[in-house]
Amino acid sequence: MIIAVQDISSLSKVTTHLISLMDEYKIFLLKGDLGAGKTTLVKEWMKLLGVDEDVSSPTFSIINEYRNATHSVYHMDMYRLREIDEALNIGIEEYIYGSESYNIIEWPGLIMDLIDDPYVMININVEDDQRTFTITAHQGTMEA
User: Fold this and answer.
1) Angle between helices 38-49 and 12-21 (to 10 degrees)
2) Domain 2-142 has CATH 3.40.50.300
3) What is residue 31's three-state secondary structure?
4) Is the pLDDT at 59 greater than 90, yes or no?
5) Are 28 and 18 in contact (CB under 8 A)?
6) What global pTM score does this model have?
7) What backbone torsions phi and psi does residue 112 show, to the nearest 5 degrees?
8) Domain assignments of the chain as residue spans, ordered by start
């Protein structure tokens, strides 16, 4: 699915669609250039889920956890990691596969080989004042 938005007030079109995918998918991967709006998308997503906490970029903490009455979400940022061992040392596999929590991962390139389960890829492209969100569901390593 491709959704184009002009401003932050239109992000609900994207976040509503992502929430509808949460029944089937637990892993959401975010790709986009610096400043594309990955963390802004997560802020709006968590707001729509009813998370009352302050949602911030996990660039320095690597992992932030958010909760509401029914969901636990790990928001991760792999940008600062340079080697797969760094991700393994922070327990990335335990976060992804060790719980029923949802995982939203920014800059997932480094850990793509660890993703076996079905996931949703969200590519954000910025052109002029418009952001285009390309949302694609994948079946993990079971894909042909």
Assistant:
1) 70
2) yes
3) strand
4) no
5) yes
6) 0.88
7) -55, -35
8) 2-142
